[in-house]
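Kindly inspect the following:
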Amino acid sequence: MPHVIIKLLAGRSEPQKARIAEAVCQAIIATTGNGIDAVSVSIEDVQKDAWAEVVLPGRTSSASRTGVGWIQREGGAVEEMRAGDVVWTPPGVKHWHGAAATTGMTHIALTEQVDGQVATWMEQVSDEQYRR
């Protein structure tokens, strides 16, 4: 049973969220052949100050779909992500990513599960980190 969690920068209306959830459900059904009763989608509002750094034990990539976003790996500079960009983060590297200060961003993140674990969530991203 596929379950998808969509995290959106807060501010979308309930009708917008419903359209997004429906579109994702239909894409999963069309791709997997599962029925609607076997697919679930949840949408979470996320405030910028609730973003947290994360360490992923397996290989991970983020494909930016729309908007402009930022990613920063521990010890590195903040990098910009634009629609169509694919960003790779090696296993075990602490990093954060999210929308740029003045735009929204959508992306698809894929990560491997290692020993039953997908992510180790760390501290929240500070304003100093977020501000370039």
Notes: The chain has a mean pLDDT of 79. DSSP finds two helices and nine strands in the chain.
